[in-house]
Structures are given as C-alpha cells and as structure tokens.
C-alpha cells in the first residue's frame, strides 16, 4: 500500500464532483487522512465525504462551501484549512466552469466573464492565499519541499476544441500563471505544476460538449477511450508526491494521447 501522504494535509477545490472528488479519494487511498474540501455544492461535498469515509473511516475530512471567484470567501476557506489542520502540504485547484461550446460570434459576455472569473481569477485567488500560508511552513518529515500545488488546466490551453474560446483562454492563463509562480517559488521549495486533462467523462464534459461529442472523441483518442476522473486523480497524486519531488513548472497531459492526433476524423 502507498502511504506517500502520511502526516500531510491536502486542500482540494471542486471536490463535490468529477475530478476533484476522485482526487480527494485518491489522496485518502494514498495515506492522506487530513482533507479540507471546498466547492459551491454542500450536497456534493457531503457525498464526497461520506464516500471517502466509507472506505477510510479514520480520515479527518472537513468540507466548506466556497466560491473561488470571491476573494473574501477564498481567504476564509484557506484560513479554515489552517485552523483545522495547522498546515497545508498539498493543494489541488480543480474547481472550474466550462460554457457550452459555441462559435465566438455567439459567445455571450456572461460565459466569457464567468470563464475568466472562475477558472483564471479564481485559481489565482486560491494560489495566492495558499502560497501566503505555504511559505511560512516547514516541509513534512522526509520531504525536501515545503508544499505542492497542482492546478487543473486543460488540453484546451495548448490545442483547440471547437467552440470553447472563453474556456481555452482562461485555461491558457492558468498555465502561464502556474509556470511563472513555479519559477518564483522554486527557491522557497514550493512546487507548482499543472495537469492538462483531455476529455474526461464528468458532468462538466457531458454538459459542455454533449454525449455525441464524447462518443466521437473516444474514437479519436489514441488509447481509444475517454478518460475517467481516476486517470487524472492518479496523475495528480503522483505529481504531488515526493516521487515527483524534482518536478516543477510542468504541464502534464492526461489525455490518452489525444494531443497527438492531427488527422481527419475516424
Ligand atoms: N472533464 C473534462 O473533460 C475536463 C477536461 C479538462 C479540464 N477539466 C478541468 O477539470 C476540473 C474539474 O472538472 P470536472 O470535469 O471534474 O467537472 P465537474 O463539473 O464534475 O466538477 C467541477 C466542480 O467545480 C465546482 N465549481 C464550479 N465553479 C466553482 C466556483 N466558483 N467555486 C467553487 N467550486 C466551483 C462545481 O460545483 C463542481 O463540483 C475543472 O477545472 C475543469 O475545467 C475537465
């Protein structure tokens, strides 16, 4: 059994659903029994908590409603984690919003604004609040680095999916921000990396792209299927762990090879 995260505390946003929820479960599976989970949905957070507790009854799980687009709420959320557990060793910024695919002439101001406010500004607010705390901490016993942050960007940050203009712009921003912050905080021994999921079967992809798109996409993917939340969660856990202790500033695609595909539809 892997126990990478023993004695550590993880903070995860977007933990009420999909990738964030599965990431919480995988951290608990790999030995992290202090989890501070945030999302807009208290019902979803409670489901995540009960699910993890059914597998790991000794886990200490706190859940908190947070809108990551709200600066005050984010500060309170991060402070809540510190009050609960005293330190934040790992953080995963998975909360995100995807608008329905539409060509740019039909893209609403609302979808543009929300993509920016949640995906880019929200991730920035979380990262800033986390770094202000992490920089004051000591590394966990046996760890070289003080802390790790993994931001969930998207394959859309580097290649294109039709109709996701605002989403792609916001996720490209997350990628640029993460690289700069990795450079700035490397000397402080805080690692910051991104995961770029391809198409992962979650409520978000179903709502944004639709079932037909997902079916066709699976065929285009070299590994011949769409991703599952666990595919991403396993990569997040590895990137957060000491096995990736000399890695910072990267963007790891978790996409079954989809970023390689340049041919016609099959
Ligand atoms: N599913 C995919 O194909 C895919 C691909 C690439 C990247 N991603 C990214 O992965 C992350 C997780 O997405 P998912 O597919 O698990 O979607 P999901 O819809 O299952 O989960 C997203 C969660 O984020 C929460 N959230 C949304 N806005 C929020 C806000 N303002 N404050 C706090 N929480 C908020 C939602 O309530 C939800 O629980 C997102 O950042 C998404 O952009 C997903």
TrEMBL record:
Pfam families: adh_short_C2. The keyword Transmembrane does not apply. One of its GO terms (molecular function) is oxidoreductase activity. Signal peptide: none annotated. The keyword Glycosyltransferase does not apply. GO terms for biological process: abscisic acid biosynthetic process. InterPro entries: NAD(P)-bd_dom_sf, SDR_fam. It comes from the Eukaryota. Keywords: NADP, Oxidoreductase. Belongs to the short-chain dehydrogenases/reductases (SDR) family. PANTHER family: DEHYDROGENASES, SHORT CHAIN, SHORT-CHAIN DEHYDROGENASE_REDUCTASE FAMILY, PUTATIVE (AFU_ORTHOLOGUE AFUA_5G14340)-RELATED. This is Putative oxidoreductase. The lineage of its organism: Eukaryota, Fungi, Dikarya, Ascomycota, Pezizomycotina. The gene is yxbG_0.
């Amino acid at each position: 059994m892997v126990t990478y995260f023993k004695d550590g505390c993880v903070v995860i946003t977007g933990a009420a659903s999909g990738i964030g929820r599965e990431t919480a479960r995988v951290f608990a599976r790999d030995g992290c029994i202090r989890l501070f989970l945030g999302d807009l949905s208290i019902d979803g957070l409670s489901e995540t908590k009960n699910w993890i507790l059914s597998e790991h009854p000794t886990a200490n799980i706190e859940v908190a409603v947070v809108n990551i687009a709200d600066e005050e709420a984010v500060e309170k959320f991060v402070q809540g984690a510190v009050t609960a557990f005293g330190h934040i060793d790992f953080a995963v910024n998975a909360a995100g919003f995807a608008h329905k695919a539409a060509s740019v002439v039909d893209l609403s101001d609302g979808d543009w604004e929300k993509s920016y406010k949640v995906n880019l500004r929200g991730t920035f607010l979380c990262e800033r609040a986390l770094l202000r705390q992490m920089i004051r901490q000591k590394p966990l016993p046996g760890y070289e680095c003080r802390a790790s942050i993994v931001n969930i960007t998207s394959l859309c940050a580097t290649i294109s999916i039709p109709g996701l203009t605002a989403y792609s712009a916001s996720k490209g921003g997350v990628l640029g921000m993460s690289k700069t912050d990795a450079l700035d905080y490397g000397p402080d021994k805080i690692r910051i990396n991104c995961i770029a999921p391809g198409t992962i079967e979650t409520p978000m992809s179903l709502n944004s792209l639709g079932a037909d798109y997902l079916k066709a996409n699976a065929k285009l993917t070299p590994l011949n299927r769409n991703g599952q939340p666990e595919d991403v969660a396993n990569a997040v856990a590895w990137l957060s762990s000491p096995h990736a202790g000399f890695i910072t500033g990267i963007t790891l695609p978790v996409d079954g090879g989809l970023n390689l595909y340049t041919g016609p539809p099959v």
